[in-house]
Design a protein that fits this description.
Length: about 110
C-alpha cells in the first residue's frame, strides 16, 4: 500500500505495541482487529474491481492508490481524510460508499 506500519495501525485504530507483539509471536488478531484489516483489504478490492470494469491502466496499483487516497482530504467528507473513518465498520462502509458514488458520478 505504500504506507508505513505506523500509519496503517493509526488508520485502523490498532495499538502499535499490540500489533507488533502479535506479529513477533505469530499470534492471530482478535475478531475486531481482523475486521478492521479486512475492511481495508475490501476497499482495495473495490478499487481494483472499479478498474477491471473500466479497463485497468497499465501499471496502476490499486493498493498504493488507496494508501495515498486515504490520507487526502475529501470535500464529500467535509474536508476530512478517509483514513479518519477507517477505524470502525461504519466508517469503512461510508468510505466504500463514497468510492461507489464517485464511480457512478454521484460524488458529492
Amino acid at each position: 500500500m505504500g504506507m508505513s506500519r505506523d500509519r496503517l495501525y493509526a488508520t485502523l485504530g490498532l495499538p502499535r505495541a499490540t500489533m507488533e507483539r502479535r506479529l513477533a509471536k505469530d499470534e492471530p488478531l482478535s475478531a475486531e482487529q481482523s475486521s478492521r484489516v479486512l475492511g481495508i483489504a475490501r476497499l482495495i478490492g473495490q478499487v481494483q474491481a472499479m478498474l477491471d470494469e473500466s479497463g485497468t491502466p497499465a501499471g496502476f496499483d490499486a493498493g498504493a492508490w488507496v494508501g495515498r487516497w486515504l490520507g487526502e482530504p475529501v470535500p464529500a467528507l467535509g474536508g476530512r481524510c478517509p483514513a479518519e473513518l477507517m477505524d470502525t465498520a461504519e466508517g469503512q462502509m461510508l468510505v466504500a460508499n463514497l468510492l461507489a458514488r464517485a464511480q457512478s458520478g454521484a460524488y458529492a
